[in-house]
Amino acid sequence: MSRLAQRTETVLPFYAVEMFKQAAALSAEGRDIISLGIGEPDFTAPPQVVETLNRAAQAGLSGYTSPTGLPVLRETIAHYYETHFGAAVDPARILVTAGASGALLLATMALVDPGDEVLLPDPSYPANQNFIVAAGGVPRLIPAQAGQRFHLSAEDIRRHWGPRTRGVLIASPSNPTGTSMQRDALRELIAEVRARDGFIIMDEIYLGLYYEDTPRSALTLDDDIVIINSFSKYFHMTGWRLGWLIAPPAMMPALDKLASNLCICAPALAQHAAITCFEPEVLAIYEKRRLSFMQRRDYLLPQLERLGLHVPVKPDGAFYIYLDISRYSHDSDEFAQQLLHGPGIATVPGRDFGPAHARRSLRLSYATRLDRLEEAIARLEAWLPGQVLTTA
């Protein structure tokens, strides 16, 4: 066959998915594997949302929608952003997408030219780099430390912005750390990027999963930020493949043109069903589930510290814990394999999220029920004492 495009060599593997495949194979062999790897909620869409989907299917509402999405869904998302995150958004600035991945694809295609450099924090969600590569850009990971909550800072922008730098791609709360950017730090970063006429793409897909201060969208600091969000995490609709993008008005014609050609539209039945997510009784279900995630976090954090698995920064959102495993190993790849094949706990090694902290870091997801987390701690307590590194 003909040679493959060079970008197929540049795109990075997704180690979380590889670990998931291994865990699934072990489960198929009869092993009891506790999944703390993939970031997929154990909750699924509430019954009301499923019922709306069924009614839409029976009514034949499965045809194409506008490339930008159903008008009523865009209006409902705008209302949600105003009432929950303090941001007044014109529905005309919202584009409904095939998941957050679809939104990231459109955003990078619209903003990144071949050779453009985009700054990201290390650690960060690995697929973000690949969207930049797909648009012909060059992702540049900037090591972010615990003291800055593993986020890019204004000082990072001043130090690392170069002649080819075009913008930044950031997330709050973050995957893999579960940490949010402090408001003053975000304000300062925005000012530095704007002073260089750069763009900001902000991933807010975990904004609804917060456990400390009530969150506010980055749009409340700068109305020209490109926002990515999704129905996958807070709304527990991972396989429905539905998300959205909020963009400045001047970008919308270009995004509409790109969406028309690359996507046609997001899944129509999922769009009709998603409107129900914002009904008061359904939002009450999501709020109860958010508190359940918070309970899981609050159980795990002291238990992990007790076992010598240090958490450098307390996560205040999402459903991830970013661990320092250096008491037990200097190789998180090997350690993750030992956890999987020994006590039967699936995790994600640090190299998925960038090289800066890769060897000593591990990501756990607590998107699974509490009794399984308790079993995971019991298994770790029995297994870890034999893994302590010696100084000899």
Oligomeric state of the chains present here? single chain
Element-level helix/strand string: HHEHHEHEHEHEHEEEHHHEHEEEH
CATH superfamily of the largest domain: Type I PLP-dependent aspartate aminotransferase-like (Major domain)
> Main sheet?
7 strands, mixed
Using the coordinates shown, work out and report the CATH topology of the largest domain: Aspartate Aminotransferase, domain 2
What's the domain count? Answer: 2
The overall average pLDDT, rounded, is: 95
CA-CA gap between termini: 54 Å
Strand content: 5-15%
* Name of the level-1 CATH class of the largest domain: Alpha Beta
CATH architecture of the largest domain: 3-Layer(aba) Sandwich
Class by alpha and beta content: alpha/beta
User: How many beta strands in the DSSP annotation?
Assistant: 12
- Strand arrangement within the widest β-sheet reads 2-8-7-6-5-3-4
Rounded radius of gyration (Å): 21 Å
Low-confidence stretches: none
- Overall geometry comes to globular
EC number: 2.6.1.-
Domain Aminotransferase class I/classII large: 32-380
Cofactor: pyridoxal 5'-phosphate
GO molecular function: transaminase activity
